[in-house]
Each structure stands twice: as structure tokens, then as C-alpha cells.
Design goal:
Nucleoside Triphosphate Pyrophosphohydrolase; 8-stranded mixed beta sheet; globular
Length: 154
Amino acid sequence: MADDRADRLYPSRPLPGVGAVVWNGAQVLLARRGRPPSQGSWAIPGGLIEIGETAEAAVRREVFEECGIEIAVGPVLGLFEPIQRDPDGRIRYHYVVVDYLARYVAGQLQVGDDAAEVRWVAPAELAQYELLPATREMIARALGIVSEGVEANT
């Protein structure tokens, strides 16, 4: 697929995306963003839905492209709607992102695509990472589900 990053800047409408709170045992997957928006910040892996692709297929593809692993996609955790304005108040970025709970299935964790770094992190270590409040909320929701013994669909 051609890189459509120019279309993301000052979009004519919100862009649909997906994210995954991926669990591997007692650790969650974090990715450091390698490109704008939010370059250098830590987040959950994810990206845009491609034309003709379901949201679940998109989240599997995005996690594989960014992190090199296969996942089983579980329930929707919530909606994240990042909107960034420029100094003039114009909308620079606008996404509508569906975040899913997911479980690690296979593969070797490695940096790919939009990620600058990827790692498994124990919940007790999350305070060390600068995460958006919405990201922390999604991870907390996922942890609540995982702690109750409800796993992602296989």
C-alpha cells in the first residue's frame, strides 16, 4: 500500500483506526511511536483501517506490522478520539480509534513499520512510561478483564 501520511494531516474527515491492548501472560505490549503524530511517545500498537478491511483484521495486521507478532483479538475495550489542533485552531489530526483487548499467540517481538521500539511491560512498571490518560484507561480496562480470567477469543 502507498504511504498516505500526507492525507492524515489536515484531514477532511476523521480517520478510522484500531488499537490493541495485547497481553502476554502478565505483561502488556507497548510501542514507542516512530512517526507523527505523537512521535517518541509510548502507546499501544495500532493504526488505520484500510479500505475493505474489517476492524478486527486491521488490528491483527497493525500489531503484526509494528511488532512482528500474531494476536487473538478479543472484545472491544472502548473508543479513543484523538484530535490535535495547530496554533491557528485548525484540525491537524483527527482519528476515531476502536481499542481491542488482544492476546499474544505467536512470533518474535520486533520493531517494524511505525514503531521505534516495542516491549512487554508488567502493570507495576507502567508508571515509568509517559502514556496518554486514555491509553492508561484502556490498559486498566483490559487488566480488569484479564484479572477476571476472561481471555481474548481464540
